[in-house]
What does this fold into?
Amino acid sequence: MRPQNIKTRIFLDSGDPQETKQVLSALGFLDGQTTNPSLIAKNPELKNKLSNGERLSSEDINNFYKGVVQEISRMIPQGSVSVEVYADAETPVEEMLVQAREMNTWIPNAHIKLPITASGLEAAHILTSEGMRVNMTLCFSQQQAAAVYVATRGVKKGDVFLSPFIGRLDDQGENGMSFIENVHAMFAKSDGHVELLAASVRTYEHFEYCLKLGVDLVTAPAKILLQWAEHAMEVPSDGYMYDKGIMKDLLYEDVVLDKKWGEYDIHHDLTDAGLAKFVADWNSLISK
Ligand code: E4P
It folds into this structure.
């Protein structure tokens, strides 16, 4: 059962329903799950099909994704399941809208993942005004976080998640946890309609520090959540210190939250690289 002294909601980061089952049984609860094209590409059942020589079209893969998401949704009907659109840096808003509306019919508890590009923001603005829930992904800067906030202003709390990525900043020597601290601090001064979903959690220490900070939500791989279960789901005490090693902190930027969303500098190389990787992983599944 959920520890009493925990502020953060716990999500599993996985494209495999077997892991949902395993984590649910170890923790006794799960608030949601996030998926993405790379995680679906790692699904053991799908890998098995491919290694058995099955030829799959892009429609087959999409149907497989739908089946996975439906299976997960049935296990956590009270939770949220993030489903990601297929998009690169150039994907126009119309294409995202078509995919998002279709994916949203798959399950009753979806948050549709959209990238923080100009089209992604426009799509988020339109879809949330229709009552759809979104998870804005591949966030690496406060400017991007602020643009999401402004593009979805007025939307009710619970309908907009923002996913700042930790591990991919760490990968280039920047302290991803300092970025989480910065977005958390920036949103502390906001109306709270955008919830911070810490993503790209790679280590137990990332997970622990997210709990210590009390971010709204954290998504972590099964391995880390199972480790947490082994630690009796402990929540770090106030004295907990995160060791950033030799990584450089990202400095807090004083970003105002009242500009037009097109006025923020939303470009980030890691967003573009992340989109390219999702597309490549997805396309690698399609038989030529
Ligand atoms: C979840 O929403 C993210 O897509 C995921 O956490 C990314 O993790 P990674 O950087 O380890 O691929």
Observations:
- The mean pLDDT is 97.
